[in-house]
Amino acid sequence: MRKAIIIFNLFSICFLAVSCSKKEAANQIPSIVQLEFPTQDLLCIDNTIPFNWSDATDPENDVLEYNVIVAKDRQLTDVVENRTLSASQFTVALEKATAYYWQVSAIDVNNNQRSNSSVFAFYTKGNGVTNYAPFMADLQTPENNGSVAAGTVDLVWEASDINTTDTLTYELFFGEDSTLTSIDNTLTAKTFSVSVVSGKTYFWKINVTDNVGAKSIGQVFTFTVD
Description:
The chain is built from 1 helix and 18 strands. The protein is mainly beta. It is flat, with a radius of gyration of 25 Å. The model is unreliable at 4-11 and 13-22 (pLDDT under 50).
């Protein structure tokens, strides 16, 4: 009998040890929503905008909400609307003749995790406006607050304009602090190579100008060199 008790206790201890060694599976973030309206680079003829996006799914079937940010800058810091919703749509009246940028994040309410959509740009039409300034440049690489290897680095950006026939030129600002130096204001390609030194931090931005002189002022990105 005593032998049986000892065997049972050993079995119980081993079972508990195995059970405790198993870690719970990490909770997974919701799927990324697809922005449906306003579409990328859309000129909205009405300034009352019905925002729509696809529903997200959650691997654990947790309850989801959506955080919607509408801003006047691509980095979503000059915010005009910031809402958390259970539905995948809402409508809001915005200023006319203004460029906006928007993003939707799907939020796992149970575990406080989120996934962020792309950022889309759109314009609201103005009364009698025939030319619009270009959208802010979308800085692609290096990523903001990212790091790169020493040597030659390609600065890469994207740009667009509601007036699709306009010709765009780019002014690059670059430097080792937030007081940037204009490197070239006649660029037509959306890339520029710079030399960077290990251990330093660099800052850059791109202003975009169309062929009638309308300009959008870019935001500053920074990166460090390994």
